[in-house]
Write a structure and sequence with these properties.
Radius of gyration: 17 Å
Distance between the termini: 21 Å
Order of helices and strands: EHEEEHEEHEHEHHEH
Helix content: 40-55%
Number of strands: 9
Oligomer: single chain
Length: 202
């Protein structure tokens, strides 16, 4: 059966660093990769070892990114620790127009921008579904972040403070669940995806 672009949806997954959102997104893509595609985000930070332009990120020079902002090329963008991050309009809308459901792993500010776009007339109207993953507790979140071994004390403190602020905004999302095990988290996300694909839309 041919895909219908008007039925394609945009799924946003948000949550604090360490909440398990990246693992959930990877699982959703592994399960539904034929119809669900990850939108590649853009950034001005330097590529890390093994990262490829167009696959992991679209890597921009700062001046080019700022020109794109002025031209309205980004649906959302943010300046995070000195680097820009954002999603290109052509990337998201291009995937939707081909009939693909789109998956984005972004922060609460980015999710807010998409919710607003989904309420306005335009290509995203009625297509945006937002999911927030709550950490079981701040103590558990700290344990997970420490276990990664990638953050120093200052960075860990910043992430925990950010997490506490993000948790307060969980009620803004369409769906919210508390992280448990990888299997349970993925099961909940898969159920949400299936329910939204069955929802009758005008």
């Amino acid at each position: 059966m041919k895909k219908k672009s008007k039925n394609a949806l945009l799924f946003i997954v948000s949550g604090p660093a360490g909440s398990g959102k990246t693992t959930v997104c990877d699982g959703l893509l592994a399960r539904h990769g034929k119809n669900l595609r990850r939108a590649v985000t853009a950034t001005t930070r330097a590529p890390r070892d093994g990262e490829r332009d167009g696959r992991d990120y679209f890597f921009f020079e700062r001046a080019d990114f700022e020109k794109g902002i002025k031209k309205g090329e980004f649906i959302e963008h943010a300046l995070v620790h000195g680097n820009y991050y954002g999603t290109l309009r052509r990337e998201v809308e291009g995937l939707l127009n081909k009939g693909n459901d789109v998956l984005l792993n972004i922060d609460v500010q980015g999710a807010e921008a998409y919710r607003k776009a989904g309420r306005k007339s335009g290509p995203l109207k009625g297509r945006v579904v937002t999911i927030f993953i709550l950490p079981p507790s701040i103590a558990e979140l700290k344990r997970r972040l420490v276990g990664r071994g990638t953050a120093d004390k200052a960075e860990l403190k910043r992430r925990l403070e950010t997490a506490q602020a993000e948790v307060l905004r969980a009620g803004e999302f369409d769906y919210c669940f508390e992280s448990a095990s990888r299997e349970k988290d993925l099961g909940r996300a898969v159920a949400i995806y299936a329910a939204e694909k069955c929802r009758v839309r005008g």
